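Researcher: Good morning. I'm working through a list of sequences from a screen, and I'd like to move beyond sequence-only analysis. For each chain I'm collecting a predicted structure so we can compare shapes side by side. This is the next one on the list. No need for commentary yet; just the structure.
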Amino acid sequence: MNAIATHAASTASTADTARGHVGRIVTLTMLGGLLMAVAAVIGPLAGSKEHVITGSVLAVFAASWTALAAFTTRWTDQPQRWAAVPAAVMAVAAVTVLVLAPTGNQLGWVWPPAILGLVAWMGVSSRRDLRSRSRVLVLYPVLAALAVSALGGAYETYAETTDPSASDMPGRLVDVGDRKLHISCTGTGSPTVVLEPGLGEASPIMAAWIAPDVATTTRVCVFDRAGRGWSDAAPGPQDGEQAATDLHTLLAEAGEPGPYVLAGHSAGGIYVLDFVSLFPVDVAGVVLLDSMHPEQYERMASWPTFYEMYRRVSAVAPSLSRIGLGRLVYSTEYSDLPPVQRDQQRAFLATPRHSRSVRDELSQIRTAMAQAARVTDLGDRPLAVLSATEGAEDDWMPMQDDLATLSTDSVHRILTKATHEMVVGDESTAQQSSQLIVDVVTSIRTSTPLNAQEG
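Model: Good morning. Structure tokens for this chain:
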């Protein structure tokens, strides 16, 4: 028996070299496909739309399976002809995605079980035809990754369908022409405060701590930009002027009269300035909560690198979110928010839909910044700037100081123990943001200069 076992082991160990080295071909085709896919995503496809990323990656994987079938048939005595099946499946899927550019999740209940079935068949076929350590060391991990992605896709579809957090919408949807946008207003009094979320954020982040605080003093509205939160997506990516026009139409159709106090966090400050540029008579005051600067790309040394990296990651995120990675990433985020807004943020940000909206926003943010740069003088409108220094780059504070010079009636408050995120996400820090907004409202109501109140 030992002799037979030794002979079998010897046969298996030399099978790769009988005619060609099948193990090397398996390794090179599988690893080569992965490396080519990564290179395409971070190289020529960087920042592309979801269907381009997904379709192209599927095409690369189809080519690697094709190479496995062809090369092992041509150069070894262990032809892996079964590999032509996953090659054909992925090629058809690639063409379908590239041509149809789907954005919904209609097939979310279909493709995961289909992939699981294909993986099971591939496992049986490779066990039958491939006598090489590469089956266990290379091919089985590839099949396991496919199976995990299918299970993640099934879970994502289930979570999107059953998660009550995203379905319990406050406020209402308002028709703005070709689509509907979400807005939720509370409190009474004037001027009405409009809260602009930051880059990649939905309305719950502003509805968590700031909106309830401000609502005790005046009318306050939170809303979702196109494709974000409960709002319908726009036909294509929007620049700052288009986003500002959307908001202006939304407020008018919702019956919320101006002039408004606009308060924006981070990139929300850019959109606030875009609104001021287009509709100056509808703006009574401005609050910039640790806002980005219109010239940040040119003046902040680290930002171009950060932007380029974030742009590449954001383009891959929709595809990865389809296999459940978004659920994993955001499952512990926003723990400082109240339970309702915490769960809403997690539910929204985990979805491919949200990831697409972030990718689209990043593709236009430099245009939005250039448009916001047209605002060089707010006159004597009350302007409040709040800046967080914890973790801030060295270039951040000079730009914050610069923003505070946009009006002759401005105040600049600095929080030395707060981070950028805490300005809206931490209860005690957000209270200081709320108070600053209320101070602007009071200044307008009493016709008292804001900087006189500060004194």
